[in-house]
Write a structure and sequence with these properties.
Blueprint (H helix, E strand, L loop, with lengths): L8 E5 L11 E5 L3 E5 L15 H18 L3 H8 L1 E12 L8 E11 L3 E10 L5 E13 L11
Antiparallel strand pairs: 1-2, 3-5, 4-7, 5-6, 6-7
Length: 155
């Protein structure tokens, strides 16, 4: 008899490594999401979220998601292993304004990975999740921390 998981949860086996040493098996939410209120200091004179601040909202949400849902502190892992993921490129589409004091829903998911690259998709939606406001694709490379040279990631 098998337990039925919600559609957004899957079970993944993890090999033992510096990146997953405490996780042999872990139920991962493939597309975690959190809500965030748009702050006054992050808005332009029209009361819209400033274009540059979208990156902060997206990246802060992704950091929260990796810690809460995957038990991964990427900064700590980089210090321990001497290598980590750095952003090489952003593709950001602004579709609808996010307004001052509005609550938005941010979803993130890994959409591509190999031994030295990954792409994370991040979506900002209305609080009810029905209207897409912005979408970001962040490309990252795995590099050695001291020299910043590209290296391969084994897990």
């Amino acid at each position: 008899e098998h337990d039925v998981l919600p559609h957004h949860v899957t079970t993944h086996p993890f090999p033992s490594s510096p990146f997953t040493s405490s996780l042999l098996y872990y139920n991962m939410i493939q597309t975690p999401e959190t809500t965030h209120r748009i702050r006054f200091q992050d808005c332009d004179m029209l009361g819209h979220l400033n274009n540059a601040r979208y990156l902060d909202y997206f990246l802060n949400a992704r950091e929260e998601h990796t810690i809460q849902h995957y038990a991964l502190n990427l900064g700590e892992l980089a210090r321990q292993s001497g290598a980590g993921w750095v952003i090489t490129k952003h593709h950001l589409a602004y579709l609808r304004p996010a307004n001052h004091a509005e609550v938005v829903r941010i979803r993130t998911q890994l959409i591509h990975f190999d031994n030295s690259n990954l792409v994370v998709e991040m979506q900002m939606l209305s609080e009810d999740g029905l209207r897409l406001k912005a979408v970001l694709w962040s490309e990252m490379a795995f590099v050695k921390v001291p020299g910043g040279t590209r290296t391969e990631h084994s897990d």
